[in-house]
Backbone:
């Protein structure tokens, strides 16, 4: 059997979804017997993957193009694929005998106001067709599975939950290693940290309001916002100025993985007050580094952190400030959360993600 997996997004947006696809591609080969694996990467990829035992296809079709489903199908046709896995949910109209898709979240259905008009139109047009076209659907979390069932009326039999995992290099570091990296960024340990794309659903304005409340209580902490700009993010900078927080907020774009480990280690906590997350990988990365987390009580985040994090109401900045205050001032709480975090991360591995994914491949391919 010939299996293809879509890695094109990494050439355009090397964030959580593209990292998921690449880790899955790395973890699949040990599970293969007579199957052939082809990695479909974009021709503009500056960091192409070379997985032992896998073939490579260089595609011209960019992800999220309005003609993607037809153009990519035409490019895949000569490969004679038995199965194609669309890791960012939009399958081609043809090009393989079976289609598997991964749906990471349905935030565009919950919060259409947080997208540009073009993005809203694109996603709404694609999702209903995608879940109908797919022979099987993978979801990052049980929360996303429930959303698929409730919002799109997908039969639960067609959905398999395959949790994500943090990369192995996210780990506690000796303080001296952390300090070397922090010095390059002009940081001292003990800041609040946010990691992710700067877009409305991440609720950065709410986090900034919470930071202002901490400052009003006399707890003067820096907030480090690491990640990359997404869309409709101008309000973030407006809110920083309105709250007079300019000296206390640091924006750091495109942080290398090794530096991100140190940023987690140097933080007193990670805050993820998102209105919606399909999984919330930064929370798991922080736990694996021994950093306490404050997360929203919504969607997948409670599922990911379990009892290893403090839950807050993202609509109420005072609850964010209160949770941060507790972690900063309660040493026993910090130790407990760190211990619970080390237990929680053991539930998530890329090997298990690949195993469950491959079971779905086998099931879908069974009748060919």
Residues:
């Amino acid at each position: 059997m010939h299996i293809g997996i879509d890695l094109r997004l990494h050439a355009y947006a090397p964030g959580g979804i593209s990292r998921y696809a690449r880790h899955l591609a790395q973890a699949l080969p040990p599970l293969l017997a007579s199957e052939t694996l082809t990695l479909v990467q974009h021709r503009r990829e500056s960091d192409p993957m070379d997985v032992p035992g896998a073939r490579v296809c260089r595609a011209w079709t960019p992800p999220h193009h309005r003609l993607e489903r037809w153009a990519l199908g035409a490019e895949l046709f000569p490969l004679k694929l038995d199965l194609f896995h669309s890791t960012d949910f939009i399958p081609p109209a043809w090009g393989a005998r079976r289609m598997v898709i991964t749906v990471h979240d349905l935030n565009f259905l919950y919060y259409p106001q947080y997208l540009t008009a073009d993005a809203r139109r694109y996603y709404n047009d694609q999702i209903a067709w995608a879940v109908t076209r797919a022979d099987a659907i993978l979801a990052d979390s049980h929360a996303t599975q429930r959303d698929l069932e409730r919002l799109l009326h997908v039969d639960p039999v067609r959905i398999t939950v395959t949790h994500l995992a943090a990369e192995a290099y996210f780990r506690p570091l000796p303080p001296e290693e952390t300090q070397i990296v922090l010095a390059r960024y002009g940081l001292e340990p003990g800041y609040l940290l946010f990691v992710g794309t700067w877009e409305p659903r991440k609720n950065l304005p709410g986090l900034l309001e919470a930071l202002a409340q901490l400052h009003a209580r006399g707890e003067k902490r820096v907030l480090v916002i690491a990640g990359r700009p997404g869309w409709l993010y101008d309000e973030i900078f407006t809110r920083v100025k309105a709250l007079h927080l300019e000296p206390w907020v640091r924006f750091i774009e495109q942080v290398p993985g090794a530096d991100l480990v140190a940023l987690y280690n140097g933080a007193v906590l990670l805050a993820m007050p998102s209105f919606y997350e399909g999984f919330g990988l930064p929370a798991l990365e922080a736990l694996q580094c021994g950093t306490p987390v404050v997360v929203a009580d919504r969607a997948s985040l409670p599922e990911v952190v379990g009892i290893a994090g403090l839950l807050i109401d993202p609509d109420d900045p005072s609850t964010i400030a209160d949770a941060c205050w507790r972690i900063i001032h309660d040493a026993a709480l910090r130790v407990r959360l760190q211990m619970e975090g080390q237990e929680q991360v053991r539930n998530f591995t890329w090997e298990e993600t690949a195993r469950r994914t491959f079971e779905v491949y086998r099931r879908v391919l069974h009748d060919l």
